[in-house]
Predict the 3D structure of the following.
Amino acid sequence: IPVIGAELEFYVPEGLAEQGVPDTLACLNPEGYPPEKERGSTQYEIATQPQRDIHAFIASLEALRQEITTTLKADFSAKPHADDYGNALHLHVHLEDSRGVNQFTRDAEGEYSKPMLYSIGGLLATMKEALPIFSPHDRSRFETPGMHAPTHLCWGPNNRSAALPLPVKPPNQTHISYH
């Protein structure tokens, strides 16, 4: 069963950045993880809890994005500032069995499970076709070295230049981060 969560990155107008953005975001996303200040000057990130119901996930993610845009006048565009970090939508994906056990695992030697490796292969094979979904208007986020954007069609643990970085997490929280 696929399970998916997301991180949304965005900029708020400079005047709003000092006015309690994290508190506002926490109210807008009470079921999610605490909002974080990102690397960009007035950039923030908000993350959702992983969900099994993909249709409900998409609807709630879009509603959250709309609410943040309306409430904070947020800019979700890929590269709103040429000399600053770009925004992204990161999807966190894993598979569970019928008992809710994560099938994306890593053993003590660092070896990943077959379901995870096969999923990585499938995602990499279809990534070029899926790029317009993740970057529908502007691909400049991918063209600025040193800005933590995926510049390689590959995967790897904690590799921010990889299109599929694998966050190093406890074995039961292992997932693919799709950038």
Notes: The mean pLDDT is 87.
